[in-house]
Amino acid sequence: MKSYFPKDFLWGGATAANQVEGGSGIDGKGLSVSDVYLFDSSMPKERWTDQWHMMTHQQVAEAQDPNSTKYYPKRQGIDFYHHFKEDIRLFAEMGFKAYRMSIAWTRIFPKGDEVDPNEAGLAFYDAVFDECLKYGIEPVVSLSHYEMPLYLVTEYGGWPNRQVIDFYVRFAKTVIERYQKKVKYWVTFNEINCVKHHPYVSVGIIEEGHPNIEQEKYQGAHHQFVASAIVTDYCHRLIPDAKVGCMISYQLLTPYSCDPDDVQKTVESQRTSLFFSDVQARGYYPAYTNRMFEEKGVELVIEPGDLEVIRENPVDFVSFSYYMSSAVSAHPERLESAVGNLITGGIKNPYLPSSKWGWQIDPKGLRTALNQLYDRYQKPLFIAENGLGAEDVVNEDGTIDDFYRIDYLRQHIEQINEALHDGVEVFGYTAWGCIDIISASTSQMSKRYGFIYVDQDDEGNGTKKRIKKASFDWYKKVIASNGATL
Fold first, then answer.
1. 153 and which of 57, 204, 244, 461 could share a cystine (Cβ 3.0–4.6 Å)?
2. pTM above 0.85, yes or no
3. Is 251 buried (19+), middle (13-18) or exposed (0-12) by CB count in 10 A?
4. CATH architecture of 10-480
5. Cα-Cα-Cα-Cα dihedral of 177, 178, 182, 188, to 10°?
6. Dihedrals φ, ψ of 361, to 5°?
């Protein structure tokens, strides 16, 4: 295959602090919103995902009990906190050019509203970045990846409270200033458009019994837009060559049929999702949001200066996660739903296969998505997440034959190459869960994405030994050939 990947393309992998680090309570770390998610094998499997979408007041209260015996997997992660040198060395062995990661807000400001940062937390990330740079790995850093301090939820009500802008800006300025010579690429919020589907982990709203959830979701999002713009301005002033991006979850939507109602429903659904990147990349609220807010009963409280700071500080690039596509119908009750498509639900596409978790696999949809986003924004694109969750088996000889993952990734990378040939500007690709981590949606360990196996089960038991999978050597060759050898 002829490679159209640019010579400086950022090949690498991605993780999030709340799923990988562990070290909860160590060196002053506080509780985050993700530290509340349980894993209980006796719980019905549908509840594993349900809690991702609906957090209860009781669960938040129980999670703060220091005497609780329940298992909260994201507090343990895979203990990257103590294994980061080994893990980054393995990333370097694969040839990573970039490592997309996040900074745990609660390591720097444990409760979120402190004035002075936690030096032990800052020192940890100094060590992580130094280890990356030692191997020539460019850190791509998310400032907020489902990791806001739990205290800002319980005491302030999350992002709908305008005070949280100040707390986030203080945190962001602290780490940008600290790491200004070590980090060039920054992302302000991970999957900012997912507030629509899981408001608790995105903006800190406990949805249970909430009297006006739509109002609070979009007010919280508006405050994130303002905070992102302020931080983008600060970063550009402090680090002139820095690049600041937004990040969305992009699930390509296609009409289930050529019924005009299906076509219109698809347009509306896509706007609901892309509204977030429209604001951050273009710098203003699109005209269609007037009707969208009217139909949702949302009346944003916009303070003087908000729209100006958003307009003056759009992001430099658009990053996104891509795992699947989804068909849309105006009459979903008549059709089979795609139950595994977490972001939009949607209708099952009969032309696509599904993963064990019901995610419909659509590699060609990635090429379409890249073209759509580039046509829409005319800004560089970065694929921040893409991968296949599967149950991997360790053979008797210690090998792991994850050829299904290789096949998934190969097909998607082929489509990135096609998009580059189309003229789309893509500057990086970081495969999701490059080392096995705790699942965001189900809190499982057995739903694995990595090139590197971690000996740990769903209950947190295991040696935590790192084992290379078949995909490890395959991805190493892909990077070495700059995408020519797949």
1. 204
2. yes
3. buried
4. Alpha-Beta Barrel (3.20)
5. -60
6. -90, 125
